[in-house]
Amino acid sequence: RLEEVPLEVLRQRESKWLDMLNNWDKWMAKKHKKIRLRCQKGIPPSLRGRAWQYLSGSKVKLEQNMGKFDELDLLTGDPKWLDVIERDLHRQFPFHEMFVSRGGHGQQDLFRVLKAYTLYRPEEGYCQAQAPIAAVLLMHMPAEQAFWCLVQICEKYLPGYYSEKLEAIQLDGQILFSLLHKVSPVAYKHLSKQKIDPILYMTEWFMCAFSRTLPWSSVLRVWDMFFCEGVKIIFRVGLVLLKHTLGSSDKLKSCQGQYETMERLRALSPKIMQEAFLVQEVIELPVTERQIEREHLIQLKKWRETHGELQCKSPPRLHGAKAISEAEPAPRKALEPVPSIIV
Amino acid sequence: MQKHSQKEHLYKLLVIGDLGVGKTSIIKRYVHQNFSPHYRATIGVDFALKVLNWDAETVVRLQLWDIAGQERFGNMTRVYYREAMGAFIVFDVTRPATFEAVTKWKEDLDSKLVLPNGKPVPAVLLANKCDQGIDVLMNNGIKMDQFCKENGFVGWFETSAKENININEASRCLVKHIIASESDPVQSVEPDIIKPHLNSSKIVSCSACFKS
Predict the structure, then answer these.
(1) Testing the interface with B: which of A84, A92, A154, A158 to mutate, by most B Cβ within 10 A?
(2) How far is B110 from chain A (nearest CA, A)?
(3) Which of A216-220, B13-17, B115-119 shows the lowest mean pLDDT across its residues?
(4) How many domains are there within chain B?
(5) Residue range A19-44, pLDDT digits in tens
(6) Band of residue A3 on the pLDDT scale cut at 50, 70, 90
(7) Are A266 and B73 inside 8 Å of each other by CB?
(8) E strand or H helix at A224, and its extent?
(9) CB contact under 8 A, A170 and B20
(10) Which residues make Cβ contacts (< 8 Å) with residue B200, sequence separation at least 6?
(11) A164: nearest CA partner in chain B
(12) How far apart are CA B107 and CA B112, in angstroms?
């Protein structure tokens, strides 16, 4: 159920967001904190798709690559990937109106977006966890925009998550677990004792950015914050869920065994996933980018000791809208090359 | 009735095989007795629990681990396989490529997991979607028996999650082998020492379970 936002408040928010979107570069450069605050309050549904494109930098990316999607869209694609993608088309949000019919528009667009990605990054191909991500994007924007937004998620927000060896997600599992030690020592101790490897419960959470885990209104609020603040939000959501599921001896009474614990983490209490509660907890949880990066270095070192060098090299992770816009500043109209004739 | 003297077994069973062969559907059919064409693709791993009243004295609890079929999730299977006691390897009878992948899955399983007695875990092969009428096996039961022998499967079944065919039977076959390998760790049931069956009935399509 959606949290009730009074209509007047919603209209006010819409006009604030319209103003921000119309002067985006200025807001991004000077009032980033205000953008963050407004993302935490929830982006108005009517502007959500547009806002996600601005935040992720996919709008800029599309403008820099005009026609690229159409070009990829016309290509046939590698049958190896097409086969797998086609098997997954009817298995994403199967009860959502947009994806319910075989060969309907939703499934067609999903195919186009995922196929285009395999052509854009042939070395990565297609990973099944990309489908729910692309499906959520398609619920908010047309195929071309969804494609570039997917590119930003795969390359800037969660680099390496979907590539062949799935190393990045396993590393993040270790980082999550290590952060849990500080956030909830009780939960940490319990999971250690039960020998429950993080990848047993966090793979779907992180790879699908909670889109298949949380109630829909919470998914949208988490994604609003994720697009603005980056992977930190995903870590925090995971930590909040773990803390409120396994964080006290009382809660642990009913999950003494390994299987019971995993069952509990799979069937989370609706109370802790409820929009207002979850968002508040996520905002308040003191887990910073710096902590994540520090832990990343520690876990990477351990990984190298046990597994050797990473086999899939990914670009560094960018922590949200601000970092992305700084790494890839919007081209300024004034600096566009002027056509000239060289004599 | 001596309830207090009931023995309880707890087994972790793996359900593995290529993407889209029907692993999730088989588990849902077995555990919840229903079928839907609307299951989501499994990402990572999923679980379900089935309780079997094995016989008057024995209750068997089966933890079924439903493992994502896409190849790249194979990078995580070592963690998923840990401490499993048996496995179903599933393929789709309408797609030959999924059968070709069976040996790859079996090798992955045996290379990452052995029983405490050092033996490979009992595995049953499931030829799923047998209701579809496009059978790449072409009813070639003898060849399948041979295949199971050569690849170390304790048995095989043609199954349909949609029509509820042979899933209970396949599970009983696997559990029987697990119990046998547990109670008799030295002389565990091995497919290569079983004599070819002479007059087994046509319905029984498990190569190793003719004793039942």
Answers:
(1) A84
(2) 20
(3) B115-119
(4) 1
(5) 999 999 999 999 999 999 999 999 99
(6) low
(7) no
(8) helix A216-229
(9) no
(10) B210
(11) B72
(12) 8
Give the CATH number for residue B92: 3.40.50.300
The candidate with the shortest Cα–Cα distance to A34, out of A13, A48, A50, A53, is A13
Interface list for B 71-130 with A (CB within 8 A): 72-73, 75-76, 79-80
Cα separation, A145 vs A52, in Å, equals 10
| Residue B202 domain-assigned (yes or no) | no
Task: Give B47's contacts in chain A (Cβ within 8 Å).
Answer: 259, 262-263, 266
- Judged by a CB distance cut-off of 8 A, whether residue A91 touches chain B is yes
Closest by CA to A295, choosing from A172, A210, A123, is A172
The residues that bridge with B10 in the sheet, in sequence order, are B61
Closest residue in A to B41 (Cα–Cα): A91
Fold (CATH) for A167-307: Cyclin A; domain 1 (1.10.472)
ipTM computed for the complex: 0.89
CB contact under 8 A, A203 and B76: yes
Domain coordinates in residue numbering, chain A: 63-161, 167-307
CA distance B59 to chain A (A): 17
> What φ, ψ does residue B62 adopt, rounded to 5°?
-110, 120
* Alpha carbon distance B111, B99 (integer Å): 19
A162, A170, A164, A117: which is closest to A143 by C-alpha? A117
Bridge partners (DSSP) listed for residue B125: B89, B156
Measure the CA dihedral A111/A117/A119/A123, to 10°.
Answer: -130
User: What is the span of the domain harbouring residue B51?
Assistant: 5-181
Q: Which one of B37, B44, B63 has the shortest CB-CB distance to A203?
A: B44
- How much is the average pLDDT of B94-116? 95
Domain boundaries A63-161, corresponding CATH code: 1.10.8.270
Query: What is the pTM for the complete model shown?
Result: 0.90
Cross-chain Cβ contact A199/B44 below 8 Å: yes
Q: Which of B46, B63, B70 sits opposite A128 (nearest CB)?
A: B70
What pLDDT, on the 0 to 100 scale, is given for residue B16? 97
A63-161 and A167-307 have identical folds: no
- Show the tokens assigned to A311: 């086999």
**Is B129 contained in some domain?**
yes
Cβ–Cβ gap A127/B72 under 8 Å: yes
